[in-house]
Design brief:
By secondary structure, the chain is α/β, with parallel strands linked by helices. Helix content is 41%, strand content 17%. The protein has helices spanning 2-27, 48-51, 66-78, 96-108, 125-133, 161-178, 198-211, 229-242, 254-266, 286-293, 308-319, and strands at residues 54-60, 85-91, 113-116, 138-141, 155-158, 186-192, 217-224, 248-251, 278-283, 299-302, 327-329, 334-336. The strands form two sheets. A six-stranded parallel sheet has the order 2-1-3-4-5-11, with helices on both faces. Helix 9 links the parallel strand 8 and strand 9. The structure holds beta-D-galactofuranose (GZL). Residues 64-65, 67-68, 142-143, 158-159, 193, 199, 227, 253, 255, 282-283, 303 line the site of beta-D-galactofuranose.
Length: 349
């Protein structure tokens, strides 16, 4: 008991001496600390560890899909304070003007890095020149920007979406052969993602690289449905109203697929392994993979949103003045009823 009392008295005396010393130092003009030193002994200005954080401004294009949410969570989970980052996250709600405004805000705050996922490929040169003039490196996430000068960004992390489109076409080739339908006239409709986004442009191009080899494949219509479930339902309803003999529905993300399924179910149209319509989807989020397992979606082409660790490694290299790859492509699979159950329980999104 005595030891504790003497201890308490000892720490009180020490605090008094510290305050007297600091007061003397300030009056003598020797002290340079900011503000009054509280009992904890740390200045109430920005403690050193705060100043050492790497500040990253991130303009995420929106929250339109399950995939986008997983992408945001992956990045927020990697660029943490524990890992030495202060992440300023901005949701642009799928509007380019909001992204440009956010990037200009990051520039005026003089962040250490700017990251963004371009909602569409064009219209970024001016604001990225402003970032370069401010000496702030730019990292593109997920989608690409079409730029006059590629030096306007330091690195890009994302998917090879042309390959994703080609995977869908190759799968359809193989499936039709397996079903003995390779000579049949095949009518196809496509629910496209946001017009002008690299996901929409490249998945479309990739599938066309395969479909152009098949004169019996007829793409009746490709219609944007903005990667959302609501728009996917609306566009599928239009397809069903205008075309009475659809053999294949290609949906450029799972959220639009969910909407298309609602529209087809309302018309009594079945899809998948034993269905009226072959259904091809992209992203491979958990809810969609369950539908692959049930045979409702024939194939789901993965688009991997787990990009946070890739970005963390790139920034750490840049901080150490190490060179980084300009293009950083994430790993991806193709899921069908034959392989999906092996992965379902291990998926993180
Ligand atoms: C693809 C990504 C797309 C997803 C959609 O890399 O940009 O945007 O496929 C998301 O789910 O909306």
């Amino acid at each position: 008991m005595k030891k504790k009392d003497s201890g308490r008295k000892y720490s009180g005396l020490l605090s008094c001496l510290m305050i007297l010393f600091l007061a003397a130092a300030v009056f003598a003009g020797c002290g340079s600390f900011q503000g009054v030193v509280p009992e904890s002994g740390v200045s109430d200005g920005m403690p050193d560890e705060e100043n050492s954080l790497i500040v990253v401004g991130f303009s995420q294009l929106g929250s339109e899909s399950v995939w986008r949410t997983a992408n945001s969570e992956s990045i927020q989970g990697a660029l943490t304070r524990e890992n030495g980052f202060f992440l300023e996250f901005n949701n642009a709600r799928q509007k380019q003007e909001n992204q440009i405004k956010a990037i200009r805000g990051f520039i005026s705050q003089r962040v250490d890095y700017i990251m963004f996922s371009p909602v569409t490929e064009s219209g970024w040169d001016t604001v990225l020149r402003e970032a370069r003039d401010a000496g702030i490196p730019v990292i593109l996430v997920d989608r690409k920007a079409s730029l006059e000068d590629d030096s306007l960004y330091t690195a890009w992390v994302g998917s090879d979406m042309i390959s994703e489109g080609e995977k869908a076409g190759v799968w359809l080739e193989e499936y039709l052969i397996k079903e003995g339908r390779e000579e049949e006239e095949i009518n196809i409709v496509v629910l496209q993602g946001t017009v002008g986004s690299s996901a929409q442009l490249e998945r479309t191009k990739g599938f066309h690289n395969i479909s152009k080899e098949h004169s019996n494949w007829h793409i009746l219509k490709q219609e944007p449905a903005d990667f959302t479930t609501a728009k996917g339902k609306e566009v599928m309803e239009m397809f069903l109203h205008n075309y009475k003999d659809i053999d294949v529905v290609i949906s450029q993300n799972d959220d639009m697929t969910f909407g298309a399924l609602q529209a087809m179910e309302e018309e009594g149209i079945t899809t998948g392994v034993d269905g009226d319509v072959i259904l091809i989807s992209f992203d491979a989020v958990h809810e969609a993979l369950e539908l692959v397992s049930q045979g409702v979606i024939n194939v789901d082409i993965e688009c991997n949103p787990e990009q946070g660790e890739y970005i963390l490694e790139i920034i750490r290299k840049l901080e150490n003045n190490e060179s980084v790859d300009k293009e950083n492509v994430v790993e991806e699979k193709v899921f069908t009823q034959e392989n999906v159950d092996r992965y379902l329980d291990t998926r993180t999104y």
